[in-house]
Amino acid sequence: MMMFMLYLLPLFMLMSGVMVYVSNRAHLLATLLSLEFIVLSLFLCLFEALNFLNYETFFSMMFLTFSVCEGALGLSILVSMIRTHGNDYFQTFSILQC
């Protein structure tokens, strides 16, 4: 019963992160934050699964490294958008401007 509860929390976190990602599409920063929340919940699922199966946690460190790189790329895109357009609203962009 306890193992079921341990897997229920990351799944709830994952579903709530996906719901926020789908519902909030106005700002790039809010989208990036919801994506980071999804990545952290996936890391929690991965870490619990690796601990349950008695595997090494080296893969979880690789996962964290790639998620940090993904976050840095997202923040660099956010900074470049704010420098060129002045804000991070998706409604102010046009496909013809790109």
TrEMBL record:
The keyword Transmembrane applies. The chain crosses the membrane at residues 6-22, 29-52, 58-79. It catalyses: a ubiquinone + NADH + 5 H(+)(in) = a ubiquinol + NAD(+) + 4 H(+)(out). Its main location: mitochondrion. Its EC number is 7.1.1.2. Keywords: Electron transport, Membrane, Mitochondrion, NAD, Respiratory chain, Translocase, Transmembrane, Transmembrane helix, Transport, Ubiquinone. This is NADH-ubiquinone oxidoreductase chain 4L.
